[in-house]
Design a protein that fits this description.
This protein is of the alpha/beta class. The chain folds into two domains: 173 residues, Periplasmic binding protein-like II (D-Maltodextrin-Binding Protein, domain 2, 3-Layer(aba) Sandwich), CATH 3.40.190; 141 residues, D-Maltodextrin-Binding Protein, domain 2 (3-Layer(aba) Sandwich). Helices cover 38% and strands 17% of the residues. The chain contains 14 helices and ten strands. Strands 1, 2, 3, 4, 7, 8, 9 and 10 form an eight-stranded mixed sheet that branches. A two-stranded parallel sheet has the order 5-6. The chain is globular and about 65 Å long.
């Protein structure tokens, strides 16, 4: 049975027996605006009870978060933030992050290997992972390969993510793999998509936009992140999640600490990270269908698993694009996209 919110909160209550820190401590975090009511109940309030501190939560998109960290690099106003792995690498390259002392993360050893050091320099730790695959109308088509997205059978009823979305480059890479061209310039698959552009119903920017098109039966198949699967699974149509022969694309969100924050804030940030990565918190967030866990000790209910990316076998099979490749190529990708696809 799915763990309800109040049951989940009760399950982590035992963690609140830890010694409290001084009540005048303040930790400022910057996070996505998604599911903040649930985060407050399952993560923020219980942590404040443990630390005896005030947790100041700022929300916004990644661009705003990154800009604020850079603008205040001489006097940081954020102690800990979460973002995509390639956005974290962009900050790292500017010298705006500090190394995370993983010896102070008691749950670090329980993480999947991919989450332990996703930047390769000790400046980030993954906290959630997700797969991207293809959702499709099983009563209309059968999807066995990423190349099936460009099959004439789907002409006029397929949507692809725009190149500027998190799913855009990965989708093109997987289409490239399916046609025997996995060069990271993505020129081959973009050329093919450009040739088939008249068959694409739309290049979507948001999963909510895509969900509406599917509900209106204007789209039968499209790549989406697993975090959005419930929008499609429960829409009353015969929807399936594809397991293409080339595999599923993987992505991750990470925790970071800006360089230059006071030592006492860094200690509190590490305590908060460790709390978030614990078995009970990762389980509570998973059962609430908020984040797929990276703590390998977490076993979610069968019901919750339907909406998540869970299990060592699946996670270890995901195909990840190096975040450095994304940063180094996204301007060129956009230029090629504009000249090849958006004509």
């Amino acid at each position: 049975m799915k763990l309800g919110r109040y049951a989940a909160a009760a399950a982590i209550g035992a963690l609140c027996a830890a010694p409290a820190m001084a009540a005048d401590k303040t930790l400022t975090i910057s996070v996505y605006a998604f599911a903040q009511d649930e985060f407050k109940e399952l993560v923020y309030d219980p942590f404040e009870e443990i630390c005896g501190c005030e947790l100041v939560v700022e929300t916004g998109n990644s661009v705003e978060r990154m800009s604020k960290i850079e603008a205040n690099k001489e006097n940081p106003v954020i102690d800990m933030a979460v973002m995509s792995v390639h956005d974290a690498l962009a900050l790292s390259r500017k010298g705006l992050l500090q190394k995370i002392d993983t010896s102070k993360l008691s749950n670090y050893g329980d993480l999947f290997d991919i989450a332990k050091d996703p930047l390769g320099n000790g400046e980030a730790v993954g906290y959630t992972v997700y797969a991207t695959s293809i959702v499709y109308r099983a009563d209309k088509v059968d999807i066995q390969s990423w190349a099936d997205l460009l099959d004439p059978e789907l002409a006029g009823y397929v949507s692809l993510p725009d190149i500027t979305t998190n799913q855009g480059p990965g989708t093109l890479w997987m289409i490239g793999k399916a046609i025997g061209d996995d060069d990271l310039s993505l020129e081959g698959p973009m050329k093919l998509v450009g040739e088939k552009a008249d068959d694409i119903a739309t290049f979507y920017l948001r999963s909510s936009q895509l969900a509406q098109l599917v509900q209106q039966e204007e789209v039968w198949a499209a790549p989406v992140g697993r975090f959005a699967w419930s929008r499609f699974r429960d829409n009353g149509l015969d929807m399936k999640w594809a397991e293409p022969e080339e595999g599923q694309f993987g992505d991750m969100n990470v925790m970071i600490m800006p360089a230059g924050i006071p030592a006492e804030n860094a200690e509190l940030a590490l305590q908060f990270m460790d709390f978030w990565l614990s078995h009970d918190i990762q389980l509570a967030l998973a059962e609430a269908l908020i984040d797929s866990p990276v703590n390998d000790t977490v076993e979610v209910s069968a019901e919750a698993a339907e909406g998540l990316t869970v299990g060592a076998d699946l996670i270890n099979s995901l195909v990840f694009m190096d975040p450095g490749v994304i940063l180094d190529n996204r301007d060129a990708w956009l230029e090629t996209w504009n000249s090849t696809v958006v004509r």
